[in-house]
Design goal:
Elements (H helix, E strand, L loop, with lengths): L10 H16 L6 E6 L3 E6 H9 L15 E4 L3 E6 L2 E6 L3 E5 L1 H9 L15 E3 L2 E6 L2 E6 L5 E3 L1
């Protein structure tokens, strides 16, 4: 019985298959990424809902500055994050994409980020009398500008 052989694929065909598989595995948003580069932070890709939030906040010229990490996904509940010079942007299904920065970010990090009791951010920071507040799945963090203290409610 003659042995049948599979046709050999070219290196280009293998590369295209790998790229398509990667895009499908990461989701359509990964196909719509933009690379941001600075001498201080290097080059990092920003994509999907995080890119939309980053652009809305002014991109590299805004309060977040340049990205300092690559975008990471696979967090609980399908979330993703990316850290920037001036804060972080987290996205999660059902809660959207929100920036977290300053002392509110520090307090959230100390509580365990998205894995802690506060969970994911559900809105961006907003001004309140005497400071700022940001709502998370598990509560509200409020920064008192006068004292610099952040309290959870």
């Amino acid at each position: 019985m003659p042995r049948t052989t599979r046709p050999r694929r070219s290196a280009a065909a293998i590369l295209v298959t790998a790229v398509v598989t990667s895009v499908l595995a990461l989701g359509a948003s990964a196909a719509h990424a933009q690379t941001f580069t600075s001498p201080a932070t290097g080059s990092h890709d920003v994509g999907g809902a995080i890119l939309s939030t980053y652009r809305a906040l002014g991109g590299p010229a805004g309060k977040l500055g340049y990205p300092v990490t690559d975008q990471a996904c696979g967090l609980p509940g399908g979330g993703c994050y990316l850290h920037f010079q001036g804060g972080s942007v987290y996205t999660s299904p059902g809660y959207g994409s929100h920036a977290v920065s300053g002392r509110i970010r520090d307090a959230w990090a100390a509580s365990g980020w998205e894995r802690g009791p506060l969970g994911y951010p559900v809105e961006g920071a907003r001004s309140v009398p005497g400071g700022q507040a940001q709502r998370f799945q598990g509560g509200l963090l409020t920064l008192d500008q006068g004292s610099g203290q952040v309290r959870r409610s």
